[in-house]
Amino acid sequence: MQFTINRQILIKALNNINRAISSKSALPILSNIKLVLTEDTLVLTGSDTDISIETKISVHDDEANLKIDSIGGLALPATFFTNIVKRLPGEEITLANKEGFQAKIISGSAEFDIHGQDVNNYPHLPEVEIKNNLQLAAKTLSEVIRQTVLAVSKQLSQPILTGVHFILGGGNLTAVATDRHRLAQRTLAFENHDATADIIVPGVSLVQLQGMLEAVETVEIQVATNQVIFKLGPNTTFYSRLLEGNYPDASRLIPTEKRTTLTINARELLQTIDRAALLSHEGRSNVIQFDISGDRSIISSNSPEVGKIEEEIFAAETAGDALTISFNPDYMRDALKTFGDEEIQIGFKTALDPFTIVPTNNEHNFIQLITPVRTY
Asked: Of 70, 73, 158, 274, which is the most buried if we count CB atoms within 10 A?
């Protein structure tokens, strides 16, 4: 196999493919990138068995300037190969595999010889039977991921909670994630009222997918029995396994009663929480306190080891009972970041019940929930 290609186009493809490469894979071959050259296309594939990404570069792509001299295939070490390509001096790169599994890489005045592996030992992409075929704006999918993936569990002892639960039906798409300490749920209208789906996508897959969504406008989503496939334009396909099991009913976790409410700008509150967290992170408990009494609201943190901070916040509106509640500032900061510069309403029931954060202009379709910390 031998080809010449624009180096920057190859770097973009390698950056995407490397999102699926893991140094911890049980199969050594998966630390490699698979390159297959046909008569008119270069196909690059990366996989860690949970995530697989394939991208194609055509000879008809004027930017790629792909010239194919001979077809074939080779598996090359992902990190080493990518680092070489990024540091080469020329605008174009030529890669040739003529004997065994040795690759010669030439660009400008630089020349590398690296050892590869037999491409036939690389696992094939999963062959799946598609049950549903959906379309979603890439910007919308990226926003849904950003607003929910923060709440997935990091504990592998609760595997079902390490994913985001997507439920499609009745003209609505709902995405929900929880680690039992916090919850994030986003609902949006879906044009295809007949479409249905109920899947749990690993959070790590969604984080990698989100990083690729800026380059496309529309995503085609194909759902199979144990896989979900995201087609990012005509040339790139992202495969992810699905989590198996029954996701907890998130609606039961969301309180319906609010005895105290606070309306405030999310960014301003985030800045206050950031300052209080400077002290709480130095202490043992990492807890800050919210005191609401009449029109006066105070954020404070008290650490016997370090000191104390207290700051009054100026809410647009406060209503209901006086309340003192403690919570993890990191959970609160993660939640507030999803609202940007929006006005939000925080709803409390009691000091021991989870409290909700919703945008005032979209309170029924987006909710963050945080469980308070008991300090006694």
From this structure: 73
22: left (phi over 0), alpha (psi -120 to 50) or beta: beta
Give the pTM: 0.94
pLDDT at 347 over 80: yes
Q: Are residues 108 and 152 in the same domain?
A: no
CB distance 182 to 368 below 8 Å: yes
Write down which residue in 251, 268, 300 finishes a domain: 251
* CA 313/CA 272 separation, integer angstroms: 8
Q: Residue 192: which pLDDT band, with cuts at 50, 70 and 90?
A: confident
Q: How many separate domains does the chain show?
A: 3
Question: Is residue 222 domain-resident?
Answer: yes
222 neighbors 229 (Cβ within 8 angstroms):
yes
Residue 284 pLDDT greater than 80, yes or no: no
Distance in angstroms (rounded) separating the CA atoms of residues 259 and 208: 40
Using left for φ > 0, alpha for ψ between -120 and 50, and beta otherwise, residue 270 falls in: alpha
C-alpha to C-alpha distances, 199 to 165, 241, 280, nearest whole angstrom: 6, 10, 38
Residues paired with residue 68 on neighbouring β-strands, in sequence order: 3
Please, where are the H alpha helices in the chain?
A: 7-17, 78-87, 138-148, 203-210, 266-280, 329-337
**Pairwise CA distance, residues 346 & 348, whole Å:** 7
For the stretch 178-189, pLDDT in tens is 999 999 999 999
Q: Which of 286, 373, 334 is nearest to 184 (CA)?
A: 334
Structural domain for 56, as ranges: 2-121
Q: For residue 55, tell me if it sits in a domain.
A: yes
- Collapse the DSSP code of 19 into the 3-class scheme (helix H, G, I; strand E, B; otherwise coil) and give the result: helix
Question: Which residue, 251, 278, 304, sits at the end of a domain?
Answer: 251
CATH code: domain of residue 157: 3.10.150.10
Tell me whether strands 260-265 and 317-320 are parallel, antiparallel or unpaired. antiparallel
Same domain, 264 and 330: yes
Considering the domain architecture, whether residues 307 and 363 belong to the same structural domain is answered as yes
Q: Assess if residue 375 is contained within a domain.
A: no
